[in-house]
Amino acid sequence: MNHVFSLIARRLMVLPIMVLGVTFLVFFLMSFSNIDPAYSALGEGASPEALAAYREAHGLNDPWLNRFLSFLGGLLQGDLGTYGTRQTPVADRVFEAFPVTLELTFIGLALAVVISLPLGVLAALYRDKWPDQLIRVASIIFIATPSFWLAVLLILAFSANLGMFPASGALPSFFENPSGYVNRMIMPTFALAVPVAGSLIRIIRTSMVEELDKDYVRTALGTGIAKPVVIGRNVLRNALITPVTVMGLRIGYLMGGAVVIEVIFNLPGMGVTILQGIQQNHPDLVQGVVLIVALAFIVINIIVDLLYLLINPRIRAV
């Protein structure tokens, strides 16, 4: 048990350092933007005096380090700044958009697992036979299919031609309109999940093959234990360690892909928010969105690290 607490403590100790590093990097890169926050906030008709007063009031004339420390202090209090002529809090816009991105990311991940797990296991059990060959060809096609290209094909096929699913419009609440929510999310989710499912199929197959070749499997089968029991209780559990590791890394890919897919399907998530911030010259909005996405990626990967403890007890002794 002490090993468990030690592992959790090590992961949590790294978290503040990584958060500080990402915050510094995002603020540093956004400082190179040639967009004047005062001009973006006050609009085109603002006088030079009003612009100068805004810069002074908001510390834009202060040294870079002072501005970073001020931003960091506000971040610790949940303040990501404001944007637009109405001085809308960035945090309010992020809290509206971020749940949509998380929903798309994790539904896409769940769909990728649903597709890849049975196919990867089936390919390993029928190694080098026709099911394995067929599944490997399919996985290569999945990997080679870009999400944005697949999204366009889905819109042309199922929205423009068949009219089965909407490609734009408001996103209904799942609890108020489940069928409307599913119809709105099914195409973007599928477009996001397919490339990830392709890579997971190959990883699951490789891990399963390695486990099936180990001595303990042959010993268990030789003692008369049924093959489905050995596979389900031992082989699959041990083989999932590597795929879970990759899944943690794929979450970052999925979040990045979700940002693009949201723009294609006009979903009100972080992708559309970033695009609006760029088009409307709101650097504070872009900075806040990018920072939250980066922090979410860090936290999720640490959670995935801790999930290893539930998958394989041997890791608890590390």
Structure report:
With 318 residues, the chain is mainly alpha-helical. It has a domain of 187 residues: MetI-like (MetI-like fold). It has 13 helices and 2 strands, in the order ααααββααααααααα. The chain has a two-stranded antiparallel sheet with strand order 1-2. A hairpin with a 4-residue loop joins β1 and β2. It is globular.
CATH class of the domain at 95-281: Mainly Alpha
The CATH topology of the domain at 95-281 comes to MetI-like fold
What is the annotated CATH architecture of the domain at 95-281? Orthogonal Bundle
| Rounded mean pLDDT score | 80
- Spatial strand order of the main sheet: 1-2
Helix and strand content put the structural class at mainly alpha
Q: List segments where confidence is low: pLDDT < 50 over at least 5 consecutive residues.
A: none
How does the overall form come out from the CA principal axes?
globular
Write the CATH homologous superfamily of the domain at 95-281.
MetI-like
Please count the beta strands (DSSP E, at least 2 residues each). Answer: 2
Strand portion:
under 5%
Major sheet: 2 strands, antiparallel
The secondary-structure element order is HHHHEEHHHHHHHHH
Distance between the termini: 12 Å
| Helix percentage range | over 70%
Task: Draw up the topology in text.
Blueprint (H helix, E strand, L loop, with lengths): L1 H29 L6 H6 L5 H10 L6 H13 L5 E2 L4 E2 H36 L4 H14 L3 H15 L16 H35 L2 H8 L4 H13 L1 H25 L4 H10 L3 H29 L7
Key traits:
318 residues, 2 strands, MetI-like fold, mainly alpha, globular, 1% strand, two-stranded antiparallel ribbon
